[in-house]
Write a structure and sequence with these properties.
- The chain is of the alpha+beta class.
- It is 16% helix and 50% strand.
- The N terminus is likely disordered.
Length: 113
Amino acid sequence: MKHHFLAAALSLLATGVLAHSPLKATTPADGAVAGAVPTEVTMTFMRDIRLTRVQATHADHDPVDLDLGDQTSFATGFALPLEGMGPGTYVIEWRGLGDDGHPLTGRFGFTVE
């Protein structure tokens, strides 16, 4: 009986994880090395998400909130302007809500030479 309960619990957990909206792709790509600071950051998700906050961190600067503008609806793709902070490593951290109502977070980074 315990094994059936455990199997059912794991099945529900796996279903919940699969229902979330993982980040599919970014531009610049995670781990990319660019020759110049990009003017925007794009994010593509597997499923609809509503972004609530996106922040850029650079080693020599305080974190900066990226302007979501009118991109406040559920969507799979977002393009956000990025103010260049010079060469170095950038970390982009995002927060949002999945179309199932669950909070989602993630991060990716790139380097500008």
